């Protein structure tokens, strides 16, 4: 088992990573919980697969549990479901000492984390991620959110979990398309870090699952510790994301996020070759890796359409937009680009 400690200004917590890690959650929660009620928030795909064993672990350690089930998918990460969760927590009698347990992918983790951050002005939350993307990205770092009609993740809060239990056994039931989705983000980490995670991905995900998940969480941990509230360094985690978000929007959100990130990573590497002296062989190395995993290396939208979609994003800063470039694999940096010049980066 690997245990990583995340140390932020708003709290320190452990991330347990191993096959079967979810069987530790009752004991682990017993050590830190102040109350004896837990509300498991999950979705309708994960619930029949894993909620019984989690309920068993929690009740075996003396916790009362109740379960709220969302319809699966991004469409549930909205204000209506969020309010329903808050009402459910109140009706179930959770008080300030009790705990929300987020059991699912990034959708569940984000909405349950936001509910925990705001219910009674904040109660404890534990993350049990069940997708590759949520294990390696969204469950660690404390960003929680829901989507608004105007765009994704536009309402949210920073809320660090009390702990994260990553049970890599859960990946066994995860559909291939969702593994691919997670691989897009892992390739982004490989570009940012340039270390062992890149060589392990080149060697093969299947052979190195455990170590790759650990390496990704460790990279995320380091960045979050240095910049918890995304005022600077944490932006590097957005490598490839600005064009990816634009393409997701243009596709009417049918393009999966991780798949869009893979294309975005390649686009920004090609921009980095032109604008930041990144060696072309680095861009080619990542292209080869994406091809190995059946991930796209380009978008089907023109640079002009992508730039227009990015410029309309709610998270831009006035006339400027933050982009992340690489001067080589393992060395990335954020710059402010005038919206009028964006198209040149997306060529
Ligand atoms: N908070 C952050 O820092 C952060 C970072 C990245 C992404 N996100 C958010 O994460 C969300 C995407 O998360 P996701 O990719 O995990 O998607 P998801 O939560 O929608 O899960 C994908 C699908 O897999 C199913 N599933 C989950 N675990 C399973 C398992 N073990 N076996 C079988 N099926 C399973 C789910 O029911 C769902 O249908 C987006 O909303 C994104 O904005 C947040």
H/E order of the elements?
Answer: EEHEHEHEHEHEEEHHHHHHHEEH
CATH topology of the largest domain: Rossmann fold
Average pLDDT taken over every residue: 95
Q: Which percent bin holds the helix content?
A: 40-55%
Structural class: alpha/beta
Question: What's the arrangement of strands in the largest beta sheet?
Answer: 1-2-9-6-5-3-4
Report what the structure shows.
This protein is of the alpha/beta class and 347 residues long. The protein folds into 2 domains: 2-173, 3-Layer(aba) Sandwich (Rossmann fold); 176-345, Dehydroquinate synthase-like - alpha domain (Dehydroquinate synthase-like, alpha domain), CATH 1.20.1090. It has helices spanning 25-32, 46-60, 79-91, 106-118, 132-138, 176-193, 196-203, 209-226, 241-250, 257-275, 280-292, 303-311, 342-345; strands at residues 2-8, 11-18, 37-43, 64-70, 99-104, 124-129, 143-148, 151-158, 163-167, 320-328, 331-338. The strands form 3 sheets. A 7-stranded mixed sheet has the order 1-2-9-6-5-3-4, sandwiched between helices. A two-stranded antiparallel sheet has the order 7-8. A hairpin with a 2-residue loop joins strand 7 (143-148) and strand 8 (151-158). Helix 9 (241-250) packs across helix 12 (303-311). The termini are far apart. Nicotinamide-adenine-dinucleotide binds next to helix 2, helix 4, helix 5, strand 8 and helix 6. Nicotinamide-adenine-dinucleotide (NAD) is lined by residues 43, 45-46, 49, 72-74, 77, 104-108, 110, 130-131, 133-134, 137-138, 141, 143, 152-153, 170, 173-174, 178, 181, 257.
């Amino acid at each position: 088992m690997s245990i990583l400690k995340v140390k932020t200004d708003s709290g320190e917590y452990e991330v347990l990573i191993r096959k079967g890690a979810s069987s530790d959650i009752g004991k682990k929660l017993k050590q830190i919980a102040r109350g004896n009620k837990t509300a498991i928030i999950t979705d309708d795909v994960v619930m029949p697969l894993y909620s019984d064993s989690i309920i068993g672990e929690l009740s075996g350690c003396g916790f009362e549990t109740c379960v709220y089930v969302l319809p699966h998918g991004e469409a549930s990460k909205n204000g209506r479901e969020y309010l329903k969760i808050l009402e459910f927590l109140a009706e179930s009698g959770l008080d300030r000492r009790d705990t929300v347990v987020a059991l699912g992918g990034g959708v569940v983790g984000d909405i349950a984390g936001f509910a925990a951050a705001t219910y009674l002005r904040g109660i404890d939350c534990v993350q049990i991620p069940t997708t590759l993307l949520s294990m390696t990205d969204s469950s660690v770092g404390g960003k929680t959110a829901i989507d608004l009609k105007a765009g994704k993740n536009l309402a949210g809060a920073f809320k660090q979990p009390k702990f994260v239990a990553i049970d890599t056994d859960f990946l066994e039931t995860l559909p291939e398309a969702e593994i691919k989705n997670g691989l897009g983000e892992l390739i982004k980490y490989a570009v940012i870090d340039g270390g062992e995670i890149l060589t392990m991905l080149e060697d093969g995900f299947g052979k190195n699952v455990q170590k790759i998940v650990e390496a990704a969480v460790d990279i995320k941990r380091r960045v979050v510790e240095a910049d918890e509230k995304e005022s600077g360094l944490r932006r590097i985690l957005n490598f490839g994301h600005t064009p990816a978000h634009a393409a997701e929007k243009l596709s009417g959100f049918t393009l999966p996020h991780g798949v869009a990130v893979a294309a975005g990573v390649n686009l920004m590497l090609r921009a980095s070759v032109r604008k930041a002296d990144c060696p072309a062989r680095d861009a080619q190395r990542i292209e080869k890796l994406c091809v190995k995993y059946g991930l796209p290396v380009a978008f089907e939208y023109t640079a002009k359409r992508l730039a227009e979609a990015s410029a309309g994003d709610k998270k831009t800063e006035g006339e400027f937009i933050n982009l992340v470039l690489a001067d080589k694999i393992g060395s990335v940096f954020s710059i402010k680009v005038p919206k009028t010049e964006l198209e040149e980066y997306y060529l």
